[in-house]
Specification:
Blueprint (H helix, E strand, L loop, with lengths): L10 H11 L3 H28 L6 H12 L4 E3 H8 L3 H13 L3 E5 L7 E5 L1 H19 L6 H17 L14
Antiparallel strand pairs: 1-3, 2-3
Helix pairs in contact: 1-2, 2-6, 3-5, 3-6
């Protein structure tokens, strides 16, 4: 697919101009923030999707595989996957079912909680997520489209937005090792 030519104007700047012209001064900056972040998400997700396409993975499927690969044993309770990915349980369950169907994850009963399930990464899942991670690192993460200083500033700004929205709290202090 050919990449579209850049527009001659920034449509978000034009939207802000229109907001101001319509007397919505109090909301113009916020509208610009929201639509800018949403557009950036679209641009980044398109790059991620392109990098994951050869592996037949969506970003949701990749995230579950990567989270399991990061765990000590390659196994986590489904509820822990839901909590760590901050996604609705129904979405994670649906994603897990597709990963099980494809032989990338096993879904097993929790040994101590009959109502819970464990997700376990298979060897095929581990191989796939490692290859997909190399592709993402090369094609997206090593060059997200902004320089390192801007990346650090952006991550800090978005972290404050997320914290203010109740996404997380400051971690408890860790005691010094004995």
């Amino acid at each position: 697919m050919a990449r579209p030519r850049p527009l001659s104007i920034d449509p978000l700047a034009e939207a802000k101009r229109q907001w101001l012209a319509h007397g919505w001064e109090d909301a113009a900056d916020g509208m610009t923030v929201v639509t800018s972040v949403m557009r950036a998400q679209q641009l980044l997700l398109a790059r991620v999707d392109a990098a994951l396409k050869p592996f037949a993975l969506s970003f949701a499927r990749y995230e579950v595989l990567r989270l399991l690969a990061f765990s000590r044993e390659g196994t986590l309770p489904l509820s822990s996957v839901v909590a760590r990915l901050q996604v609705h349980a129904t979405s994670v369950t649906s994603t897990a079912e597709r990963l099980v169907r494809d032989g990338l994850v096993l879904r097993e009963p929790h040994p101590h909680d009959g109502r819970a399930a464990l997700l376990t990464l298979t060897d095929a899942g581990r191989d796939l997520v490692e290859r997909a991670t190399r592709a993402l690192n090369t094609e997206v993460f090593s060059n997200p489209g902004i320089d390192a200083d801007d990346a650090t500033a952006l991550v800090g700004i978005v972290a404050r937005l997320r914290k203010n929205a109740g996404d997380f709290t400051d971690p408890r202090p860790v005691p010094d090792p004995l």
